[in-house]
Amino acid sequence: MHTDTRDILPDAPESPCSILPGVKPVLELLESDPSRVETVLIRKGKRGREVDRIVELCREARVRFIFAEAHALDRLFASGKAIAQTGSDMTEPDMAEPGMAAPHADDDLFADDDAAWDILEGRGATRDAGDDDDGLSADRAGERAGRAAQPSHSSHQGVIARVFDAGFAEFGDILRDAPDAPLPLIVALDQVQDPGNVGTLARTLYALGAAGLVVVRHGGAALGGAAARAAAGALEKLPVAKVTNLARALDEADEAGYTIYAAGGAAPETDGKPGSGPRNPFTEPLRTPAVLVLGNEDSGIRPNVAKRCHFTLSIPMARDFDSLNVAQAGAILVGCFAARRQKG
């Protein structure tokens, strides 16, 4: 069951993400250091050569971009932690230049306005295409209507980037450095959507000496305030990589000699030998360096990702119980790797 982790706590750590408002600041960051940019929100109807260039750079760097209503940007600008800019021209041009390129119909980086609400509210995945506001609670629908009525802020110029302050690591660098970590284990999250789960896992990984965390660009939780509160500072210290295609990343890990484990109850076809079942992590001689893949809270690991895994680990239940959430299961499995490492 999804746990709401969005309530603001008085002593909550700051979000590991900041916002960068303005056309030129966002453009300059995409040109100089796109790895720090998590998402770019562009106001619907915004036009101009610089906006075209922002979209082009997002596609080149595989950064997600969203065309959102003005009030979505206004709310993010009003509530976000802005990065100070000096010497930047923050004046909106009097006349927008025409000719902005239309989003590609098959562009997996492009997301619609509903994704903006998901990001603002701490969720990483967009709603299903068939969803609409009829499925929302009356309170939430009213909240959206209220946002729409809020006055527009011009100081963000219709463009805001969410920036991961610590910067994302390159997946190849984590693969290279993992064997030297206290625990040569990388945890990869396949569309884990609850930011609280992501933050809790980051905290566990950092405490036990794991090498890093891998998240997907699309369908995963935003690394905002909810993740930061659960991580208690670990997200700023633990190497975090964001990959476009997790299956390809696992292929790269396999080629580098890593053993790849899937967390779940069903073994992939490649699991050890034909017909073999899931392994008990309490008794299995777990190998390192390794990658541990944890799946979505509801649907688990996607088939194309699961078939890259060499073994499946299934936590045995001592009592009749449905399941553990992804953060709890991940903590147990990472603890098993750490215990095996201590035993040599």
UniProtKB/TrEMBL annotation:
Region named Disordered: 123-154
MF terms in GO: RNA binding; RNA methyltransferase activity
RNA 2-O ribose methyltransferase substrate binding domain segment(s): 20-79
A single BP term in Gene Ontology: methylation
Keyword Transferase: yes
Top-level taxon: Bacteria
Domain tRNA/rRNA methyltransferase SpoU type: 185-333
The entry's keywords: Methyltransferase, Transferase
Keyword Transferase: yes
Name of the protein in its database record: tRNA/rRNA methyltransferase (SpoU)
